[in-house]
Design goal:
The chain is an alpha/beta fold. The chain has one domain: GMP Synthetase, Chain A, domain 3 (2-Layer Sandwich). Helices cover about 30% and strands about 20% of the residues. The protein contains 5 helices and 6 strands. A 4-stranded mixed beta sheet has the order 1-4-5-6. A hairpin with a 4-residue loop joins strand 4 and strand 5. This is Metal-sulfur cluster biosynthetic enzyme. It comes from Streptococcus loxodontisalivarius. InterPro entries: Fe-S_Maturation_MIP18, FSCA_dom_sf, MIP18-like. It holds the Pfam family FeS_assembly_P.
Amino acid sequence: MRDDIIINDRAAALSERLIETFETIFDPEIELDMYNLGLIYQIDLDETGHLHLLMTFTDTNCGCADTMPAEIVDKLTQFDEISSVDVEITYNPVWKMTRISRYGRIALGISPRGGK
């Protein structure tokens, strides 16, 4: 799991499968998945199987703001360990290009060094 995602122990136990799932959910305008784009801030899975996902979008007018949360809920509730999902959208902190992973930068043709 990325170092910039806050994740509790229950969710961390599913991290490989979560990452695989997040990598199948794309921002259609940027054509990069939500994991490598750096849209996820926090993942919490409680003892009842309820998963809370705190995420953002690249901007407040993102065209996928209506469709992506529903796709996330649909895909994550297919896990036996997850009974329900709520997706909370925040713009604080504001998403920045520095959140794009090294892989994402290479895929988008951006310097993989992140401007450093």
